[in-house]
Each structure stands twice: as C-alpha cells, then as structure tokens.
Amino acid sequence: MNEPHPRLNSARIVITGAAHRIGRAVALELASRGCALVLSYRKSQEACAKTAGDARAAGAPSVETLALDLCSEESIDRFARNALAVGSIDGVVHNASTFGSEPFGAITAQSAIEQFHSDALGPLLLSQALAESLRGAQARGTMQNGAGIVLFGDAHADSVPRRDYTAYLMAKSATHALVRQLAIELAPEVRVNGIAPGVVLWPESMPEAARAEYLARVPLRRAGTPEEAAKLAAFLLLDASYSTGQILKLDGGRNM
C-alpha cells in the first residue's frame, strides 16, 4: 500500500491565478498536503474566495486571498508586502497567465507587452520581492528540501509552434528562460522548476473538430487534467529535492 504524502503543516505557499482551472487544482492539492496558502486573483475575487474555502476544507491550516496584477509593479510590491506581513513565504507557484490568440498581422505592441508582463516580467519581480523569505525556508524548518518555485510555461513554446499564438508563445519562451535564470540566482537555498503543459483544459472557443485533430497527434490520445498538473506542481515544489532548472513537459507526448 502506498504511504500518504507527508503533511507540511507550516509551509506557506503563494499560488498566483488561483481562482480557476489549474491554479485552483494546485491550491486544493497543496491544501491536502497541509500547506498554508496565499492565493492571488486579478479580477475573480469571488471565485478565488470559493477556492480558498474549498482549500480550508481540504486541509489548509490558513488561506489568504490577495489581489495581484502582474502587469503592475506597484501591485506586485503591494502583494508581496501584504503576504509577508502575515508570515514567511516558503514557495511560489507562478500559474497566472494571460492566454489569448491573435492572428499575425493583428498583433499590437500593447497586447504583446501585457503578455510578457503577465508571464515573465511579473513572475520575475514577484520572485525577487519574495526571495529573502524563500531563502530562509530550510533554516526555518518549514521546507525540508529548501524553498521551491514552480513556473507554468507551455509545451509549444519550445517545440511545435501554433499559428495565431505568436505573442503568447514568445512570452512563455521567456518563462522557460526565467526558470533557468532563477535556478542559478536563487541556488542553493531555492529550487526552481517549470511545467510545460500541452492541452490540460481545452479553450472554450476551440471546436470539436480542432480538438480531435490535435489529439490525433498526441500519443496518449487525450487531454491532460488540472489535477495531473497540480500533482506534478506539488511534486516539484515539495519533493523534487535534487532537481532545479528543469522544465517538464506535460503534454501526453505531443512534443515527440
């Protein structure tokens, strides 16, 4: 019989974009591991509050929800100050992202800059603001393997580019670069890894025929689930004691 995961009752983890989809699943997974949580939202305050309530029911000893706009340096600084005012931070899951397709020829500088801010520059600035607290996690005894950071990229950013997603995938390529840079900058006290999903949840606007065409090129012949992404995030954050600077594809083999 498999032993249950150990509960980390004192580890306190930031999850950005925790109101819906993968962020919500990560919150519930980490709650079941006994982590305290700081959940961010940009506009979905009510949905984030629902996630917080469900995380408490799943075992999180404490949960705070704070507004965060990764395109605003002022908002990032305020979020970090408010989170640290309550207690130390032992890990971060950078999940929040702006996802949208724009046909080539219609891309604007403003939309591309916002994409870069939400997916790369914002996570960099937030990690920097929390770095001192993260570096102290192992000494505090809250994270046995030292602090962890997990960033969500995209499997298509490194291979198999997708038409109409130029600005988005450029930003996600920067996310992947950030994984490696933070791994160097924050070593040895903080481990930094990334997850590059393929399709974990379908875009609502994607027709059934397009979904079937996509899956025909996926060896496992199905989309992933938010729960699978959440379990991998929890593993990298809490258990991957000798991994840093790595980006794991979660795409059913689509990249092959």
What would you say this structure looks like, in words?
With 256 residues, this protein is of the alpha/beta class. The chain has a single domain, classed as Rossmann fold, CATH 3.40.50. Helix content is 45%, strand content 14%. It has helices at 21-32, 45-58, 73-86, 109-135, 137-140, 166-186, 208-215, 226-239; strands at residues 12-15, 36-41, 63-67, 91-94, 147-152, 190-197, 247-250. It has a seven-stranded parallel beta sheet with strand order 3-2-1-4-5-6-7, with helices on both faces. Strand 2 (36-41), helix 2 and strand 3 (63-67) form a beta-alpha-beta unit.
Concise synopsis of the structure shown:
The protein is α/β, with parallel strands linked by helices and 256 residues long. The chain has helices at 21-32, 45-58, 73-86, 109-135, 137-140, 166-186, 208-215, 226-239; strands at residues 12-15, 36-41, 63-67, 91-94, 147-152, 190-197, 247-250.
Give a quick set of tags describing it.
Rossmann fold, 7 strands, about 45% helix, globular
